[in-house]
Structures are given as structure tokens and as C-alpha cells.
Amino acid sequence: MLNLTNKTAKEKAQLKSIELAKVKISKFKKGDFDIEIIGDIKEIEVNGVNGIELFATAKKNGKPCSFAFVNQKGKISPQKNLLLEIFRK
Q1: What ranges do the domains of the chain cover?
Q2: Would you tell me how many other CB atoms lie within 10 Å of the CB of residue 17?
Q3: Which residues contact 89 (CB under 8 A, 6 or more apart)?
């Protein structure tokens, strides 16, 4: 278990990103959705902010579904019909 005591927010994010990048996930089910992580989860840093990046596909009740994301301003992203998405969090 990570010891995050006395760590800054940046240090905590970096440590969490490193640990999440070690996780090996391929497929899982969440409700009606079948989600597949393609390849490895990667630790990233963008503009000084730590996070993870992964590729994923999803199906709902066996049919491919698209991804839509809400950006930091609360607007839906224009990528409404992608069947493969890169997640950066």
C-alpha cells in the first residue's frame, strides 16, 4: 500500500500514476458494458500534471458504442462517434 503521508498533491498524483501503470487489465464488464483495455496503461505527465493514458473499446449489449467526454469547461467533446479512444487522466 502506498504511503501518501506528508506528500504534496503532485507527489501523490505521480505515485498513484506509477502504481496504476503497473495494473494489468484486459477485459471487464460493468453493467451492460463490456470494456477492453488495449495494450498497457502508461504513466504520463502533461504540462506538469501526472496521470495515466490507455486505449479502450466498449460494447453495450454486444454492440460497439461510442465515447463522448465532457471537457474541463463542461462541454461535450466533438469526438462523439469514436469506437476507440485514448484516455488521459
Answers
A1: 9-88
A2: 20
A3: 51, 52
